[in-house]
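Field guide to reading this record: the first block holds the primary sequence, the second block holds the structure written as discrete tokens, and the final block holds curator observations. Each block starts with its own label. This record concerns Pyridoxal phosphate-dependent aminotransferase, catalogued under organism Parabacteroides hominis.

BLOCK 1 — SEQUENCE
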Amino acid sequence: MPNISQRGVDMPASPIRKLAPLADAAKQRGVHVYHLNIGQPDLPTPQAALDAIRTIDRSVLEYSPSQGYRSYREKLVGYYKKYDINLTADDIIITTGGSEAVLFAFLSCLNPGDEIIVPEPAYANYMAFAISAGAVIRTVTTTIEEGFSLPKVEKFEELINERTKAILICNPNNPTGYLYSRREMNQIRDIVKKYDLYLFSDEVYREFIYTGSPYISACHLEGIEQNVVLIDSVSKRYSECGIRIGALITKNAEVRNAVMKFCQARLSPPLIGQIAAEASLDASEEYARETYDEYVERRKCLIDGLNRIPGVYSPIPMGAFYTVAKLPVDDADKFCAWCLSDFEYEGQTVMLAPASGFYTTPGLGKNEVRMAYVLKKEDLAKALTVLQKALEAYPGKTV
Ligand SMILES: Cc1ncc(COP(=O)(O)O)c(C=O)c1O
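BLOCK 2 — STRUCTURE
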């Protein structure tokens, strides 16, 4: 039998999904599982998008242009303008989710062996896409003790060598909920400029910023316009994970031309998804406000609740809908598996994502988990009770 590729061997299993068989087994036993592990929003998709899909009036569901429909890209120009990001429709390439935008950015900008510096903990699929592109992720470590703020310039510079080609940030951050300050963004800009690197900036959570601090996009940074590749997605902002629509945005025509060749090879981004995404741009302000307010309340409910449990600590996330919390356990991987396989409280348990999968440095995140607050407040409150009971009962507890 032939061997599978080294790449196939090296691909990490998703830290979010790898406990899924244990969760399935718990459900089979009749246990209710609160999913705090996955960032799939449960809030409604804008009515305008649902209506647009319901009333599709086409006789052929054809391929769309490889870069996406012009009408949608033109409308997006207005959306970005509201965030002070000045684009033309030609700067925007529609992709099959933000996921494909990350992959195409890597494939277009990096040679095998090229290195990308990423603050860790990081969205785990970046590692998977880097392996797909033969690129190497090098991490600068951020810590829960420092609220996951960006390490000093020297920490980046220690990693920079002739293979370093890019910095990748996620802002607001998944998994930490951290929002980079103007000072931090300027620090990144200076490094990008000094070493002439690409800056891949994943800003899929820009709608969800809960502090008074301003949102500084990579596109706001002066002097590195040609270096910036923005990754975007409608999955989170409109609760539209399933329509698979994202975007890769750059002022750099050479990068766009390369990306377009990958786009042409995969023919077309989703047709129906684009129809829904374009209609979503007409969603009411009320929709945006209600969605936002709901996350504000959920954040408060989860973070307050976590910090009330003895031995648990969560910083207050400034954006997105995640937090990385420290638990009083010997090993969060074991604890998360144990919750699903050996524990229940009144017929319920919790599913959390062990944070180790978001770090590349071995041993880090050992007593941390990522939690998403995409459940209703009542369910979050119940999940917190179950978590507290689980921590009391866990044999490997440390308090
Ligand atoms: C930070 C970040 N980037 C990109 C994505 C990919 O989103 P999608 O492919 O659904 O657009 C996600 C999804 O969870 C994410 O959290």
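BLOCK 3 — OBSERVATIONS
The chain has a mean pLDDT of 96.
Residues 39, 97-99, 123, 170, 174, 202, 204, 233, 235, 241, 246 surround pyridoxal-5'-phosphate (CB under 6 Å).
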